[in-house]
Amino acid sequence: MNIQGKTVLVTGASRGIGRAIAIEFAQQQVKRLVLVARNHQRLSEVACEVKKYGVDVILLPLDLTQLVEVDIAIARTWKDYGPIHMLINCAGVAHQTPFLESKLKSVQSELQTNLISMYAITRLIARRMVTQRQGVIVNVSSLMGKVAAPTMATYSATKFAIVGFTQALRCELAVHNIRVLALLPSLTDTDMVRDFTLFRWVAPVSPQQVAKTLVIGLKQESTTEILVGWQSHLAVLCNRIAPFVMEKIISLAAPLSRQSKYYLKFKEAKADI
């Protein structure tokens, strides 16, 4: 897909991967960016950056868990500014904790933001895309949507769900000329994960690399899933060919592995919370 001259809505646009995608798309000369996030100040800062490239910017400071407000804002935006050609579902949260120590509030937060809110805004946009018989929906999952990670059980579950949701939508919406694909970054160097206890042997990618990889993937019409970084490709291949080997590697690399030098660090960090 040629994104030049298109209107693109990006959720989670105030930081991390969403912010990088907004800036990259502005550089690629989209016509208009509709930026969605809770923090109005951060959204305004992103808007200042993308306007340098001559792109129209609409700010929607929304909490995506407030479904009625989201419905009203999308309807008004579509009416006032015309159709949205592409939706990028990037909003998400992650909490790292051993499952047995997890708090229900954190679990509910991940499920609500990563899944329910994404379902809701996707339905709002997809129904309108059907009427214009064109559109692209990008759901940002994760490598953890292919290979689950200890200490990230709920997050992994939501990212697996996003992959399944994307596959189902792809089949349903293809008859309406709507393309649906998943973006699967590996660990990305954003403020969301900087306090995490990292897995051994995992080299974080930059948000800019994720954004550039998305642009390349969109140009390849047959692409349905976009993996980011060589580690993602290797992990998915290994998990497909020898899942038992991949599971052993993950066990050794995980913060909770007693063979890992990060085990005590992880336990000490959690004890301080």
Record keyword descriptors for this entry.
single chain; 273 residues; Rossmann fold; 49% helix; disordered C terminus
Q: What would your notes on this structure say?
A:
There is one protein chain. The chain has 273 residues and is of the alpha/beta class. It has one domain: 3-Layer(aba) Sandwich (Rossmann fold), CATH 3.40.50. The protein has helices at 16-27, 40-51, 67-81, 104-132, 153-173, 207-218, 230-241, 243-253, 263-271, and strands at 7-11, 32-37, 56-61, 86-89, 135-140, 178-185, 225-228. The protein has a seven-stranded parallel sheet, with helices on both faces. Helix 3 (67-81) runs parallel beside helix 4 (104-132), helix 4 packs parallel to helix 5 (153-173) and helix 7 crosses helix 8. The model is unreliable at 257-273 (pLDDT under 50).
Task: Indicate the percent of residues in helices.
Answer: 40-55%
Strand order of the largest sheet: 3-2-1-4-5-6-7
Choose one word for the global shape: globular
| CATH architecture grouping | 3-Layer(aba) Sandwich
Q: Would you tell me which CATH topology applies?
A: Rossmann fold
CATH superfamily: NAD(P)-binding Rossmann-like Domain
The percentage of residues in β strands lies in: 5-15%
Output the helix-strand order: EHEHEHEHEHEHEHHH
Total domains: 1
Number of strands: 7
Structural class label: alpha/beta
Radius of gyration: 19 Å
If helices are DSSP runs of H or I spanning 4 or more residues, what is the number of helices? 9
Briefly summarize what is shown:
With 273 residues, the protein is an alpha/beta fold. It is built from 9 helices and 7 strands. It has a single domain (7-232), classed as NAD(P)-binding Rossmann-like Domain (Rossmann fold, 3-Layer(aba) Sandwich), CATH 3.40.50.
